[in-house]
């Protein structure tokens, strides 16, 4: 009732609804409707429910709670037993008209309901979900998935339905033959339905600025706010290092440029030496708040030496909590993408860097993370100053 004074749309959520005594839950929901709630959310907070049980819960609530027909019912599922999507679909079959979900199914513990899986299940199985539709632009699913993975540093498993690298891959000979003859033989949906472009245009060192920008537009990449001069320079530098530049390379370049702010740290030079008989050693030159610094360090490996040298210049003893490497495309000249998670004084940030040299990619990832730490510290300080007063 208090919230209703300020806005028309009020959602009430009953935590752990799937394990709550039904009579008590129905009573609470009834009171929420009386108080003005227009959406009622019945979460499976710990991912304990199974589809038959969760669907039956919605059916019973809609039949029992006074005024149930005047509100929208919402599902919110966690994936602890791998049933978040199945439970959400069961709720939809029993009257739920809102599903709280996330792209790539990210979330605490084992994650939340995967948005792309629910959307494509409804779209693909219209025979089952005849009276249900979503307003999601399905062709934006794959680009959104890739963008989220880039920004969060949480990679998409290869076998992830809808958006994984193997989602539309066929290895068995009979499957390959069938797909070549008629795609729908083994593909219940088409890659283009979710925004995967099968018409991959390969750019190279002779490609100009127009071709670069045109390809970004074709991929549906919003480059508003991106320094296109810098992005194009990075593209040309990459094209000089490898024969072919693929869509994934372009996405990595533009994504990294889009999240840049007023950077405090800039990597100017990196030299790393190592051999089976010598201790790895790194020399780094960086610009910190506009001033250049040069320092060096040794480490247990080339990445360790590099990170120690950067940390010395930055004057920060950061803790490396996670470090991962993946190849953006195939081939020995492919860009490597490094993601690192660092923490300092209870604050954690992730950084990404991509380069054909994996050590350089590692350095860029750490510098990216340090800049995020600096930005957070600056914003936190400004917020603190703003709160001060009589």
Task: Write up what this structure looks like.
The chain has helices spanning 22-34, 51-64, 84-93, 115-124, 141-152, 173-181, 209-218, 228-241, 247-258, 302-314, 358-387; strands at 11-13, 39-44, 72-77, 98-100, 265-275, 278-288, 291-298, 319-327, 336-344, 347-355. By secondary structure, it is an alpha/beta fold. It has three domains: 3-136, Alpha-Beta Barrel (TIM Barrel), CATH 3.20.20; 209-258, no CATH class; 265-383, Alpha-isopropylmalate synthase LeuA, regulatory domain (Double Stranded RNA Binding Domain). A four-stranded parallel sheet has the order 1-2-3-4. A three-stranded antiparallel sheet has the order 5-6-7.
Rounded to an integer, what's the Rg over CA atoms?
Answer: 25 Å
What is the residue-averaged pLDDT?
86
CATH architecture of the largest domain: Alpha-Beta Barrel
CATH class assignment of the largest domain: Alpha Beta
Low-confidence stretches: 170-176, 385-390
Major sheet description: 4 strands, parallel
The helix/strand class is alpha/beta
The CATH superfamily name of the largest domain is: Aldolase class I
Strand order of the main beta sheet, please? 1-2-3-4
β content, as a range?
15-25%
Domain count: the total is 3
- Structure summary, number of beta strands: 10
Please tally the helical runs, counting DSSP H or I stretches of 4 or more residues: 11
Q: Helical amount among residues, as a percent range? A: 25-40%
Distance between the termini: 32 Å
Q: What is the CATH fold-level name of the largest domain? A: TIM Barrel
């Amino acid at each position: 009732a208090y919230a209703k004074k300020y806005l028309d749309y009020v959602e009430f959520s009953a935590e752990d609804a799937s394990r709550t005594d039904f009579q008590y839950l129905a009573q609470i929901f009834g009171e929420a409707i009386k108080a003005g709630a227009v959406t009622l959310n019945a979460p499976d907070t710990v991912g304990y429910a199974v589809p038959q049980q969760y669907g039956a819960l919605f059916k019973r609530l809609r039949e029992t709670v006074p005024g149930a027909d005047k509100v929208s019912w919402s599902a919110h599922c966690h994936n602890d037993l791998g049933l978040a999507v199945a439970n959400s679909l069961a709720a939809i079959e029993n009257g739920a008209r809102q599903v709280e979900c996330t792209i790539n199914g990210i979330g605490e513990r084992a994650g939340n309901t995967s948005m792309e899986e629910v959307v494509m299940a409804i779209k693909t199985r219209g025979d089952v979900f005849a009276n249900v539709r979503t307003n999601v632009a399905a062709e934006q699913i794959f680009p959104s998935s890739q963008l989220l993975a880039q920004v969060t540093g949480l990679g998409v498993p290869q076998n992830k339905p809808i958006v994984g690298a193997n989602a539309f891959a066929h290895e068995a000979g009979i499957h390959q033959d069938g797909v070549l003859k008629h795609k729908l033989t083994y593909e219940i949906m088409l890659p283009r339905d979710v925004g995967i472009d099968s018409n991959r245009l390969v750019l190279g060192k002779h490609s100009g600025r127009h071709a670069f920008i045109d390809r970004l537009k074709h991929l549906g990449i919003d480059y508003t706010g991106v320094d296109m001069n810098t992005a194009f320079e990075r593209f040309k530098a990459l094209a000089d290092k490898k024969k072919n530049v693929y869509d994934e390379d372009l996405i990595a370049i533009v994504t990294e440029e889009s999240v840049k702010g007023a950077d405090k740290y800039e990597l100017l030079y990196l030299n790393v030496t190592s051999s089976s008989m010598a201790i790895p050693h790194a020399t780094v030159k960086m610009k910190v708040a506009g001033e250049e610094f040069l320092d060096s360090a040794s480490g247990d490996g080339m990445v360790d030496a590099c990170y120690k040298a950067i940390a010395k210049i930055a004057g920060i003893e950061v803790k490396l909590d996670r470090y991962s490497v993946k190849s953006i495309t195939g081939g020995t000249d492919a860009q490597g993408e490094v993601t690192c998670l660092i923490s300092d004084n209870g604050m954690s940030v992730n950084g990404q860097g991509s380069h054909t040299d994996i050590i350089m990619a590692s350095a860029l990832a750490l510098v990216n993370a340090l800049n995020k730490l600096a930005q957070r510290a600056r914003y936190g300080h400004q917020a603190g100053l703003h709160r001060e007063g009589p």
